[in-house]
Specification:
Radius of gyration: 25 Å
CATH topology of the largest domain: FAD/NAD(P)-binding domain
Largest sheet: 7 strands, mixed
CATH superfamily of the largest domain: FAD/NAD(P)-binding domain
Structural class: alpha/beta
Strand content: 15-25%
CATH architecture of the largest domain: 3-Layer(bba) Sandwich
Number of helices: 16
Distance between the termini: 79 Å
Length: 501
């Protein structure tokens, strides 16, 4: 487990809330409705939601309450990205007729702000708050010790149902020399107090891309290395191309289809070797950041002892989030494919209903959007075209370029588009991708429409304030409605209008 560094006033405040020294665990209740293992998003939502409706709940955390999202994920990364956007906005202010000269980034101040804001937000996930809400909080290593018991710190917690919400961690890549040379992950990069002059980012997935662009904007020379054929391999290819062009303009140097073969230390430098001729003598940098993959935290729980099946992908669950042990459920990154805070949140809500009330809420019923917080952002919900084809669904696709949306033009954010897939013969939305400055905010309109079974044509009938970038979504709806004006329909309308003169 990574340490929280440096131990300044902000991190001390953080630790006092999410893993307070000298925390005294309560005497266990005779029996709990739920024992929750892990106090990341899924565990916290499960615990406080169940306690709020009267359940007797125990929550066990071995490291930091708040999990990845608060400590090493969403919160610190978005603080860093916001600072980098501010620096970029000032540097490029000239295109708006605003002169700003001599831009300098105080990286130590950027990171101090990050730590301060994280500490402020941590009160929401603190041990003290959950205790006040009626949750018995135990800090320590949890392990299943019997068919209906969990042991922690020498105490035995007896349960009617248990929930595994132990999350995932940064994966360790088996690259020769990497461990000996030293590297950063999302769990350690936010401990930095000095800006790396040269940074190699291995992996061009969401984490790698977000942090590569952020560090470039903050002043690092950034090399983004990816073994696959493009950045953001899971995203719409057109969307990924827009981000690639943005990276090129900003000076992020990236290479795709280039496997890293080994890493070695050369004096104070770290040298990365790849399967290409770009750097025959190796790429010399000051820091290496690994942005590839997550591994589930299944070790040490004695899952075998209670008949809970798992694999390298995580704990096996059914559509109701039950494990192979009917007493035990799972939620969040430990069992889900899409590892997002919001899916962890909603999977926890499913678990509360199903575990406590014999409910039948299904994971597959969720409409799950996601966003990669590059600039521009890429947000998506539902099916891609290839997904629809695999399901045997015929689609029609409507695209609205942001360069034709007035507010995007005025904002100087003309890169990107709104792309919507509807089922052939109807306006049922199967999926949507938005590439825009704040695509993560825009995608929710499609999420709501899909969850409410509202078609693309109906979106066009909803007034959107002008000028906003969300107008691009409404205009995609207009594009669909225009297809309904077939020659036959137009002929009928023309006949009516001639008759009505």
């Amino acid at each position: 487990m990574a340490e929280v560094l440096p131990l300044d006033e902000h991190n001390k405040l953080l630790l006092s809330r999410v893993h307070p020294a000298g925390w005294v665990s309560p005497e266990p209740a005779q029996r709990y409705n739920l024992v929750v293992l892990g106090a990341g998003t899924a565990g916290l939502v499960t615990a406080i939601g169940a306690a709020g409706i009267g359940a007797k709940v125990a929550l066990v955390e071995r490291h930091l309450m708040g999990g990845d999202c608060l400590n090493v994920g969403c919160v610190p990364s978005k603080a860093l990205i916001r600072a980098s956007r501010a620096a970029h906005s000032v540097r490029t202010a000239g295109r708006f007729g605003v002169k700003a000269e001599g831009v300098a980034v105080d990286f130590a101040a950027v990171m101090e702000r990050l730590r301060r804001l994280r500490a402020e937000i941590s009160v929401n996930d603190s041990a003290a708050r959950y205790k006040e809400k009626g949750v018995d909080v135990f800090l320590g290593e949890a392990r299943f010790s019997g068919p209906d018991t969990v042991s922690v710190g020498g105490r035995t917690l007896r349960f009617a149902k248990a929930v595994i919400a132990t999350g995932a961690r940064a994966v360790e890549l088996p690259i020769p020399g990497l461990k000996e040379t030293g590297f950063l992950t999302n769990e350690t990069v936010f401990n930095l107090t000095e800006l790396p002059r040269r940074l190699a980012v291995i992996g061009a997935g969401p984490i790698g891309c977000e942090l590569a662009q952020a560090f470039r904007r903050l002043g690092s020379e950034v090399h983004l290395l990816e073994a696959m054929g493009q950045i953001l391999i899971r995203e719409d290819r057109d969307a990924a191309k827009v981000v690639e062009e943005s990276f090129r303009r900003e000076g992020v140097m990236f290479s795709c289809d280039h496997d890293v073969t080994r890493v070695e230390k050369r004096g104070t430098e770290k040298v990365v070797f790849t399967k290409c001729d770009c750097h025959p003598d190796g790429l010399a940098v000051d820091e290496i950041l690994i942005g590839v993959g997550r591994a589930p935290n299944v070790e040490g729980l004695n899952l075998e002892g209670v008949g809970v099946e798992y694999s390298k992908s995580g704990v096996k669950v059914d559509d109701f989030l039950r494990t192979t042990n009917q007493r035990v459920y799972a939620a969040g990154d430990i069992c889900l494919g899409p590892k997002f805070t919001h899916t962890a949140d909603f999977s926890a809500r499913i678990v509360i209903q199903n575990a406590l009330f014999h409910g039948c809420k299904r994971l597959s019923a969720l409409t799950v959007p996601w966003c990669t917080y590059t600039d521009p952002e890429i947000a998506h919900v539902g099916l891609y075209e290839k997904d629809a084809a695999a399901k045997g669904l015929k689609v029609r696709t409507f695209v609205q370029e942001m360069k034709d949306v007035d507010r995007a033009v005025l904002d100087g954010e003309t890169e990107g588009f709104v792309k919507v897939h509807v089922e052939e013969g109807s306006d049922r939305i199967l999926g949507a991708t938005v590439v825009a400055g704040h695509a993560g905010d825009l995608i929710s309109e499609f999420s709501v429409a899909m969850a409410a079974q509202m078609g693309l044509g109906s979106i066009a009938s909803v007034i959107h304030p002008y000028p906003t970038q969300a107008e691009g979504i409404r205009r995609a709806g207009d594009a669909y409605n225009r297809t309904r004006l077939t020659p036959f329909v137009k002929g009928l309308l023309s006949s009516w209008l001639r008759w009505s003169l």
